[in-house]
Design brief:
The complex is a heterodimer of chains A (289) and B (367). Chain A has 289 residues and is mainly alpha-helical. Chain A contains 12 helices and no strands. The longest helix of chain A has 27 residues. Chain B has 367 residues and is mainly α. Chain B has one domain: ABC transporter involved in vitamin B12 uptake, BtuC (Orthogonal Bundle). In chain B, 76% of the residues lie in helices and 0% in strands. Chain B is globular. Classes of the chains: A mainly alpha (289), B mainly alpha (367).
Chain lengths: 289, 367
């Protein structure tokens, strides 16, 4: 196994996770359950392909992709914050809605039930192995930036307060609702970018192309104990396992299904507290009247 | 019922809470239906078709002929099992998102049992044996989040989601690697336990997959109703769901109730595997449960967690799903995927809102 090719492949696999997990960390630290990342990614991916297809420019695709993630995030925010709907139920609904809407639009815009036509993307130089894609570099930077935002800025302080002690935050004049709206919107933008990267990297949209990546990102958030840097490391770990699976294919060393299980099994282990318990933000998922 | 008429006719003590509960239970699904119809109109118009024509086709293709109706009943059967499973957990305040993998595990166990039984085993024997196997498999999957929740406080939502992926990967490994008929992803056909189809009783249902599992689903709904509302254990379970601390002070072991609720939720979902395996294909196929678990959440929500409400909601979602096929020539069937999401979202938003509005109105009336 070539270590350089292993590393580059691992990073390319990790980028969508890194975007989505950063989004998940922000929303959950603000107290809103992020089972929606899968749906945000899927809508971002589709919107990116739509924008790129009609404009011919992947940069327009990035903008429309962000918009796609943002629209679903705002639906999520209005339902859970304004209408105080159950966050888990809304999460399920958003994911089903994203699958449905992207399928319907795939038919409407591209007259296909499986995939879009090929669209432009970034880079493409074989020798660069994907590293001539600006989104890849953005993906590598997003976790440190989010760590700075969460721990070193007033906004980050408010996000953490909204997730741990919303009543205390309200009592010192912070609008918890507004902070949560902002955090969910940010999670939609970031997870949407994860979808954008995925779609533009493959130069097309295919039905349900996120294939559970949003849930891997959730795993990373929990396994990383709601910390942006640790969540990013979890993303890299999960991506490494996946790369290993791809590179071992055909050698029959370990059945691929068992490597697929790794992120999920580790998350359960982390939640059960076998090696240092993962404790969620105190107000996560709670609806106050 | 409006606030003004309630003010004119003073409500009696016995009827008022019942009516209030009925209002709170029925208004959200009706609001959701209305929202879904409007969204449906927009989607149909965006495709340049007439909503009236498409809705007529939808009704004709589902309730309007025996084959379509049979297909609706078949799809409703699986959704009834997963919906009952989710609502059973929710009555105890627990969210089982694992119905998908529990259903798959149940179907897998039913198929293996049907294969292991000798050829010609009478149905009266084979059905209970296969159902027990299916229930045990589903219950085994359900007991994992139950144990982790009770023992370590691990949140059942995340554990059941993660377990879905693990169990489905494991089943895929069994099938793809070991138990499949060559060139397919399914097991050989079972030797015993094949359920009669509706078409065997009434030939008009010819070609539809509806089968005796439908009756089993209805019986399970009755059993769940009896347990929840007419037994001591069900009373404890609902008490824990409403207020765990109060239940604990009242002498109920919350941990034991959680354990029972999530495990039996898994048992119910697992038994749903018989509809596909014993009733339709007569083998286990990889991915047969796909989507039924998440829709079970929708069914439980729209059915307002009442066993009989769940049956109605299962019928409704099955109609949407079959209706997609009926209208496909005019509007893509994917429209129904959108509407499913819209219905869940609308109910989720309407439930707390309707409760607040109704209670606000009542307070004004009482004041």
């Amino acid at each position: 196994m070539n270590p350089i090719s292993f590393l580059t492949q691992m990073i390319r696999i990790a980028i969508p996770y890194l975007f989505a997990a950063s989004g998940g960390v922000v929303a959950e630290r603000a107290g809103i359950v992020s089972l929606t990342l899968e749906g945000f990614m899927l809508s971002g991916a589709f919107a990116a392909v739509l924008g790129t297809n009609y404009s011919g420019s992947p940069w327009v695709g990035v903008l429309t992709g962000i918009l796609g993630g943002l629209i679903f995030a705002l639906i999520h925010a209005v339902a859970t914050i304004r209408y105080r709907a159950d966050q888990v139920v809304v999460g399920v609904a958003i994911n089903l809605l994203a699958i449905g809407v992207t399928r319907f639009f795939l038919k409407l815009f591209f007259a296909s039930s499986s995939n879009s036509p090929r669209v432009a993307g970034f880079g493409g130089n074989i020798n660069a192995a994907g590293f001539d894609n600006p989104l890849l570099w953005l993906g590598l930077l997003v976790a440190p930036v989010m760590a700075f935002v969460i721990y070193r800025t007033p906004f980050g302080l408010r996000v953490r307060a909204a997730g741990e002690h919303p009543d205390a935050a309200e009592s010192v004049g912070v609008s918890v609702k507004r902070v949560r709206y902002a955090a969910v919107a940010l999670s939609g933008i970031l997870a949407g970018l994860g979808g954008v990267y995925l779609a533009l990297d493959q130069h097309q949209f295919t039905d349900q192309m996120t294939a559970g990546r949003g849930f891997i990102a959730i795993s990373a958030v929990i396994f990383g104990r709601w910390d942006p840097i640790r969540a990013a490391l979890a993303c890299l770990l999960f991506a490494a396992a996946e790369t290993l699976q791809i590179q071992l294919q055909g050698s029959n060393a370990i059945a691929s299904q068992f490597i697929e299980m790794i992120p999920y099994a580790l998350t359960i282990v982390a939640l059960a507290g076998v090696v240092g318990r993962a404790v969620p933000p105190a107000a996560l998922g709670k609806v106050e009247d | 019922m409006t606030a003004s008429s309630a003010a004119v006719a003073p409500k009696t003590i016995s009827s008022a809470p019942w009516r209030e509960r009925a209002e709170e239970a029925l208004i959200p699904p009706l609001v959701a239906l209305l929202v879904a119809l409007i969204c449906g109109d927009l989607l149909i118009l965006s495709y340049g078709q007439s909503p009236a024509t498409v809705y007529r086709l939808l009704l004709e293709g589902t309730w309007g002929n025996a084959y379509g109706f049979g297909q609706v009943l078949y799809k409703a059967t699986t959704l009834a099992f997963t919906g009952l499973a989710v609502s059973f957990g929710l009555r105890a305040g627990l969210f089982n998102i694992g119905a998908e993998s529990q259903l798959a595990a149940g179907g897998f166990a039913a198929a293996l049992t049907g294969l292991a039984l000798p050829m010609g085993t009478p149905l009266i024997l084979a059905l209970p044996v296969c159902m027990i196997a299916a229930g045990l498999a589903g219950g085994a999957v359900g007991s994992v989040p139950a144990y982790l929740k009770t023992r370590f406080g691990a949140h059942e939502v995340i554990v059941t989601i993660m377990l879905n992926f693990i169990v489905l990967a494991l089943l895929n490994w069994f099938i793809a690697g070991h138990l499949h008929v060559p060139e397919t992803l399914h097991t050989p056909e079972i030797h015993a336990g094949v359920l009669p189809r509706l078409a065997d009783i009434d030939s008009r249902f010819h070609g539809s997959a509806a089968n005796l599992a439908l009756i089993v689903a209805a019986l399970v709904a009755v059993a769940v109703w009896f347990y929840l509302f007419r037994s001591r254990g069900g009373y404890d379970l609902r008490a824990v769901g409403l207020q765990p601390q109060a239940a604990e002070y009242g002498g109920i072991s919350v941990g034991r109730v959680w354990m029972r609720a999530l495990t039996f939720s898994g048992v119910i979902a697992g038994m749903g595997g018989i509809n596909y395996v014993l009733g339709y294909k007569h083998y286990y196929e990889d991915g047969f449960a796909s989507g039924a678990g998440f829709l079970g959440i929708a069914v439980a929500l729209v059915g307002r967690n009442h066993p009989f409400g769940v049956l109605i909601a299962a019928f409704f979602f099955a109609t949407l799903s079959q209706g997609g096929l009926a209208i496909h020539a005019f509007v893509p069937k994917q429209m129904m995927d959108v509407l499913q999401g819209v219905v869940i979202l609308a109910v989720a938003m309407a439930v707390p809102e309707v409760r607040r509005v109704l209670r606000g109105a009542r307070r004004r009336v009482d004041a």
